[in-house]
Design goal:
single chain; alpha+beta; Umud Fragment, subunit A; eight-stranded antiparallel beta sheet; four-stranded antiparallel beta sheet
Length: 256
């Protein structure tokens, strides 16, 4: 008995083979191209993110940074809830991961508002006004500040002599400010812990001066100072809910 067999001509076999191989070859050619393009997009996005991070890091380290004022010691000039951008470049910013500082390009003059490391706890940043500098003789009589015997005109100083707040007029015997130090006072004189209480500030502690109020939100000090996670979350929700009504719009852009 003869066995039947089916033979394909070479042309037919080639045509048949091409029919089922062509789609596989086409897909195999697209996948590497798509994958390569995707990797290229991710690489470019990562590179831009790195450059943005480095830019922001350099700005914050050497030029300036933003911070919120949580207390009322400078009220009258700076309010609780003011968000400030302050300049660091002129005061010898510290090089990251070292204790080296760039050259200081500016000395603090009398009357300047500056940010500085609190002498009793350098981890804290305080904001006060320098009313006297090294070598000055400073004293206070009946709420009036005298520097080297001359009364200082302080239109910015706030005193509370009302029926609600009956503070005795401030008095302080004459003190000589050591060389290389600053005598600091808060503008809200009756609600400020300053050099009257804890002494002078080394000039090298100064790290910047405020430039502008970029946002101000009306909330009490207790809200800004509360670090408990649950309370912070609730406060954040309150800010979102009352953003338009409790933002002090007229403070935005205030120069200091």
């Amino acid at each position: 008995m003869k066995t039947a067999s089916i033979n394909f001509a070479p042309e037919a076999a080639a045509k048949h083979t091409a029919g089922w191989l062509r789609p596989v070859q086409l897909q195999g050619g697209q996948k590497p191209a798509q994958s390569k393009a995707k990797r290229g997009h991710l690489f470019r996005a990562g590179k831009w993110a790195l450059w943005i991070f480095l830019f922001l890091f350099m700005v914050r380290t050497f030029i300036g940074e933003a911070s919120v004022v949580p207390t009322a010691s400078m009220e009258g000039t700076i309010l609780v809830g003011d968000h400030l951008f302050w300049n660091k470049a002129l005061y010898g910013p510290e090089i990251p991961f070292t204790h080296w500082r760039l050259p200081r390009l500016k000395t603090v003059p009398r009357g300047e508002i500056v940010a500085f490391h609190y002498p009793l706890d350098p981890a804290q940043i305080f904001l006060k006004r320098a009313v006297a500098i090294g070598g000055d003789l400073v004293e206070i009589h009946n709420d009036v500040v005298y520097v080297n015997g001359a009364a200082v005109r302080e239109s910015y100083a706030l005193h509370h002599h009302t029926l609600r707040f009956r503070f005795a007029p401030s008095e302080m015997a004459a003190r000589r400010v050591p060389a290389g130090a600053l005598f600091m006072l808060g503008d809200n004189r009756d609600f400020s812990s300053d050099s009257r209480d804890w002494g002078v500030v080394p000039a090298e502690n100064v790290i910047g001066s405020p430039l502008i109020v970029f946002w101000s939100y009306d909330a009490p000090s207790s809200e800004w100072l509360d670090e408990q996670p649950g309370h912070r979350l609730r406060f954040f929700g309150s800010v979102c809910a009352h953003l338009l009504t409790r933002t002090r719009w007229t403070r935005t852009g205030t120069l200091l």
